[in-house]
Amino acid sequence: MNLPLVDSPFFEQIFSQLTLDKDTKKLVKQFAEQGYVIIDDLGIENIAETTDRIVKDLTPIYGEKGKVESAWIHHDRIQDAWTFNQDVKKIATSSKIINLLKILYQREPIPFQTLNFKFGTQQSTHSDSIHFSSMPARFMCGVWVALEDVDANNGPLHYYPGSHKLPIFDLNDLGITGSYQNKPYDVYPIYEEFLQSLIEHNGLKKVELYVKKGQALIWAANLLHGGSPVLDKNRTRYSQVTHYYFSDCMYYIPLLSDPFLHRIHLKEVRNIMTGKVVDHIYNGEKIEVNPEQYEVERLKYQLLQFQEELEKLRPMAMQFQDELTILKPQLQTVESELEKLRIQLYDYQTKFQLSEAQNQSIETELKRLRTQLYQSEL
C-alpha cells in the first residue's frame, strides 16, 4: 500500500513479520500508537562536542536577517544551516535516525531541511501536514534534537500523543482556497483556532518535552505539536529540527495548493545526504517538472516566510507605537522648547549682526576722526 508502515491498516500483521530486536520493536509500536518516540542516543560519537560546536558556530549569526550561501537567517532561526555547517549536516544525516526511519516508513528517508533555533519558538499548535505533504500522504516526519537541556522554563516543545491518527486537514476543509490567497498567513489563525477546537472536542492531552542535551524527538507528519511559552526570558533553547520526506513520492505545500483546481505548489526537494534534487514520483513513474515552476514556487514560498516573519514583528511594532503615543506629549513639549530656543538663538544672532554693523560704523567714524586729527596737526 502507498502508506507508511505505522499508518497501515495492516500494521499488526506486517509488524509481526518484521525481524527486529526488542528495543526497536518497542519504538515502532509506540510510534504507530502515539505518533512519536524519544531517542536517547543519535549514534554520533562525541555528541556533546558536536552540539556545543553548533551552538558556538551559529550564535554569532543569530539576530541577522538574509541569505548566507544557501541558508536563510530569520533573526533567531536559521534555515538550512546544513549547507555551510558540517555538524548540522551530521545530525541531519545520523545513520541511527536514518535506519530507524527506514523501518518506521519502509522507504528511504530524505532529509531535506534543517532549522536551528536559539530560543523557544512559542509556536502555536499545528500539524506539519499543512506545511509539508506528499502524494501518497503521510510520508513526512520531523526530528527535533536538543542542543542544550530543556525544561518547563525555556520554552519546551509540546505535543498531543495519538493526534497523528486524526484526518489530515487543510484549508479546503475550512472553506478556504489556499492557492488564491495573496497573504496565506492572514487566514492561518482560522486554521489554528480550528485545531484548538479539535483538541478540546477530542479531549487530547498536551505533553511537554523535557529532555537533556543530545536527546531527540521523532514525530509523525500529522502529530499536533508546537512551542510552549518561554517563562524565563533570559534562557536560550538551542535546538535543531530536521524534516524528512521519503522516496517515491510527489512533494508539495498544502497551505498554497488546491489540487482539484490544478494549482499545486510543488516543492523542490534537495537530499541533504547527496546534495541532489529528488525526482517527483507518482506510482513509480517520474513526473517531469519545469525548472521555472520551481523558481516561481520558491519565490512564493520565500514571500510566505517573510510574511510570517512580518506577523511576528507586528506585535513588537504595535508595542513601540503604543509607547510612542505615550511619549508624544513629551515630544511635543520638547519640540516646543526647541522652538523657543530657536527663536532666542535667532534673536541673539540678529542682535549680534546689529552689534557687528554698529561696530563697523564706529570703526569707520574713528578712522575718519583719526584722519581729520592727523590733517589738523599738519
Describe this structure in words.
The chain is α+β, with helices and mostly antiparallel strands and 378 residues long. The protein folds into 2 domains: 5-289, Sandwich (Jelly Rolls), CATH 2.60.120; 291-377. It has 7 helices and 15 strands. It has helices spanning 11-17, 22-34, 47-58, 86-92, 95-105, 188-202, 291-377, and strands spanning 36-39, 65-68, 71-74, 77-79, 109-117, 133-135, 140-146, 157-159, 207-208, 216-220, 225-227, 239-246, 250-252, 280-282, 285-287. The strands form 4 sheets. It has an 8-stranded antiparallel beta sheet with strand order 1-10-7-12-5-4-3-2. A hairpin with a 2-residue loop joins strand 2 and strand 3. The chain is elongated and about 135 Å long. The termini are far apart. The mean pLDDT is 88. Keywords: Coiled coil, Dioxygenase, Oxidoreductase. This is Phytanoyl-CoA dioxygenase. Residues 331-372 form a coiled coil.
